[in-house]
Amino acid sequence: MFKSWLLRATTAAVLAFMPLAAHASDQPKQGGDIIVTYKDDITTLDPAIGYDWVNWSMIKSLFSRLMDYEPGTAKLVPSLAESFTVSPDGQTYTFKLRTGVKFSNGREVVASDVKYSIERAVNPKTQGPGAGFFGAIKGYDDMSAGKADNLPGIEAPDASTVVFHLSRSDATFLHVLAINFASVVPKEAVEAANGDFGKKPVGSGTFVLKDWTIGQKLVFERNKDYFAKDVPHVDSFTVEVGQEPLVALLRLQKGEVDIVGDGIPPAKFLEIKNSADGANMIVDGEQLHTGYITLNTRMKPFDNLKVREAVNMAVNKDRITRILNGRATPANQVLPPLMPGYDKSFQGFAYDVKKAKALLAEAGYADGFSTVLYSTNTDPQPRIAQSIQQDLAAVGIKAEVRALAQANVISAGGTEGEAPMIWSGGMAWIADFPDPSNFYGPILGCSGAVPGGWNWSWYCNKALDERAVAADSMSDPAKVVDRQAAWGKIFTDIMADAPWVPVINERRVVAKSPRMGGSGSIYVDPTRVINYDAIFVKQ
Questions:
Q1: Beta strands 369-376 and 397-404: pairing type?
Q2: CB 3, CB 84: distance < 8 Å
Q3: Residue 201: what pLDDT?
Q4: What pLDDT does residue 213 have?
Q5: What is the largest CA-CA distance in the chain?
Q6: Which residues share a beta bridge with 375?
Q7: Tens digit of pLDDT for each residue in 61-71?
Q8: Looking at residues 50-67, what average pLDDT do you find?
């Protein structure tokens, strides 16, 4: 009952944000090589560390996990697991592994690999941003604090059985076992890489990394030994980096590129939409997304609540949606509108320059102050950052915009005391799975406010952390409405502390070659961004 309820609830949630389908009736074909472009290079392919929307898709395809999702949806299905059972109290999960699954180094995947991989993700020495997802497993607190080197809550009684013992029920646990941080890796390959596993990945996924020329390209080839028949469909995909989106779009129109990974620049959107091939090139879909500005609560003057409130009131969100050609709507809270728990009645902070100036004066900054606003350097993010800069200047705040490569912005955000403000565009939060908890732990919970983490506000409210744990412990299907209400209240209470400026909820728009087949949902996949396992080339 517990399992089937989760599957039904997830399916219902995802139906609300399915994209407009493109050629949904196409039948997958085998074969073909495709080219994907991105402006920035990939930082890592280590599943315990990588956590941006570019490498997320690639990591998904290099590695396998106990659970996964049906392509283009957030419907949970067993993957490395052949079957599983859940105890009546929701605190013991027993998985039976598929037999014969092999890593790309030729060794068979066994239960102890699952235990090792999750313990590695939790180990603070790994400095991965996903440790907090596993907080319900017995022994998590001691291991995450560096007091233990293993999780007694994970057992591998034999080569094909993994048992998880939780310290509390967790309504999201099956989803947790489907995210990248739960990817299974071989210990010997991690150790042989000597700290460079992110450049030398070994997994059991649909693709293997054949070549990586830093600053130029990554080549992924089909894993011929993958355990599922006829998956993936393409023989290879090459990711070319250093490609400006406008140049990549022109190359796509010439037939030289198959997917423009950074999407369609707003300045070219209407032109492409109205072109002869526009209907076959554009995939436009809703996503569980919020774009925001982080305010570092541990750096002056953003340690002052009135300053944070003033910044919230200073930003003209309508102008930012116009920069995006209307492909977004203004946001007033952390959760996106399609996420369970979203509070339709919540008003948030209204755009009010006069009130913002008054709050700054009350905080002791009547003459304003100087600060730094970080942004990625891919269009349109620098233009949006400049718009925010103008808004801040109107209330007396002088913000220097630092537009950098995505990896550098992520590094600054994860380094305490380095980034006062970050515009998250290009890295904004897209749900790993359709549950409100995913918008808390990694980006607003105490577990994310660590070196290398994604809580770039460095906001930690232990009382809210306790309420978050209580909400996720409501695994009884009869309490699903209560659980959503509990999460909704957590997020509106967060806004009382104003660690963020929620700015927009953006649609995802992808440009693909007309020769690419499959439904639109696999190009804006809710759990993969681009589903390299499911896309195919028309023959």
A1: parallel
A2: yes
A3: 98
A4: 97
A5: 68
A6: 403
A7: 999 999 999 99
A8: 95
Judged by DSSP in three states, 273 sits in helix
What pTM did the predictor assign? Answer: 0.87
**Strand runs (DSSP E) across 147-271, as ranges?**
154-158, 161-165, 207-213, 217-222, 236-241, 259-260
Residues in a beta bridge with 429: 290
Q: How far apart are CA 25 and CA 519, in angstroms?
A: 7
Residues 184, 103: Cα–Cα separation, whole Å: 9
DSSP string, 145-183: TTS-SS-TTEEEEETTEEEEEBSS--TTHHHHTTSGGG-
Q: Which two tokens stand for residue 10?
A: 């997830």
Encoded amino acid at 440, one letter? Y
Which amino acid belongs to residue 1?
Answer: M
* Region for 146 from its dihedrals, namely left if φ exceeds 0, alpha if ψ lies in -120 to 50, beta otherwise: left
Closest CA to 181 of 357, 44, 11: 44
The token duo for 316 is 């003209």
Contact in structure between 482 and 322 (CB atoms under 8 Å): no
Which H or E element spans position 512? Answer: strand 508-512
At residue 444, the pLDDT reads 97
Please determine, for residue 8, whether its predicted confidence score (pLDDT) is greater than 90. no
Residue type, position 388, single letter: I
Cα(86)–Cα(3) distance, integer angstroms: 7
Q: How many CB atoms lie within 10 A of CB 27?
A: 8
Q: What is the pLDDT of residues 375-392, one digit of tens each?
A: 999 989 999 999 999 999
Question: Rg (Cα) of the chain, in Å, rounded?
Answer: 23
Which tokens sit at 283? 């995939």
> In the block, which residue shows the tokens 């681009």?
530
Mean pLDDT along residues 91-95? 98
